[in-house]
Each structure stands twice: as C-alpha cells, then as structure tokens.
Amino acid sequence: MIRTLDLDSPIPEYRTPAVSEESRSIMDQLRDAIDSSLSTIFLGKIKMSLFSEVSEIEEECSINNWDGAGSEPISPIAITMAELLIYSFPQGIPLPELTPATDGEIHFDWRVGHKQALTASLSNNGFLSFAFIKGGRRFHGSEPFEGTFPERLSDLLNELYALKRVA
User: Fold this and answer.
1) Model confidence over 9-45: pLDDT tens digits?
2) In angstroms, what CA-CA distances link 139 with 48, 70, 94, 130?
3) Cys bridge to 105: 32, 85, 97, 121, which one at CB 3.0-4.6 A?
C-alpha cells in the first residue's frame, strides 16, 4: 500500500504514552522535524502552482498582440526570469498573483487591500523592478536580481502583511 500526504488535511496530533523527560524531548524533536518537512512540502506546492501559472502565461501570451491591444509577447527570457524568482521564494512568503504585462514581462502582485500592494517584475536584462504602496507611503525601485530573493522585497512584504519576517 502506498501512502500519500494530503496537504489539505490537518497535521496529525502525535501522542505517546511516554512520560520521561527524555522521551518528551525526542517527541518534541520529532514534531519539529515533521513541521519542517511539511513546511518544505507546502512551499514546494506553492511553487508548483506558480510554475503552472507561468506555463499558462507562456502558452497564452507568447505571440504579438496577445491581448488584442498591441502588447508585446512574453519572451522566453521573461519566462525564465519569472521561474528564477519563484525558485528563490523563501518559506512563509504570501502567494502572489501573476499577471502578464503589455511590455513582455510577468508581474508578481501582492495585494492586501485598497492602496496596499507590492508589484515586482524581472526585466530581460536581469533587473528586478518594484512598486510599493501602503496608505500614503509609496516606494519604487530597481536592483539587479542575483538569484536569491531580494532582501528589499522581503522587507516590503513584511511591512505590507505586517509579518514578523518573510525571509
């Protein structure tokens, strides 16, 4: 019989009849290891769903005028750059919405509410551009993408979602 992990079901509660301090310590370590593994699996599931979205964008938007309004096609380089950014996502990152852009790039959009958003995209030359708004605070910039999730984006996501720390 093959067992599969249902990521939509709650994490099982592990119980033990053991009462010694050492056995409780071992159970705590086991729980930590399982939680870490499930977090890694969950992040993998998120990344796979985003890779599927990138494939759909590539399929639907890789020709000139894909939107009927004269948009540039999404280039193979833009597809690769989007995939590289997804690969770099740290554990705990909120799920972005992916949007094809009329300039041939793919935008990563994190929206919390009215005037609360972060948008990022990678250009064909390897630069990451982003725009942030939260209430009256606006910020935008551009920096080279070096293969790891940019600390500046992490900081902005932390502020946007009022998180302890994304990365």
Assistant:
1) 444 444 445 567 776 666 666 665 655 555 566 667 7
2) 30, 29, 20, 8
3) 121
- Phi then psi for residue 109, to 5 deg, are -115, 125
Residue 55 confidence (pLDDT): 93
Q: Distances in Å between the alpha carbon of 60 and those of 63, 84, 98, 112?
A: 8, 20, 13, 27
* Strand order from edge to edge, sheet including 116-122: 97-100, 106-113, 116-122, 127-134, 137-144
The whole-angstrom separation of Cα 125 and Cα 58 is 19
Task: Determine contact, residues 51/43, Cβ cutoff 8 Å.
Answer: no
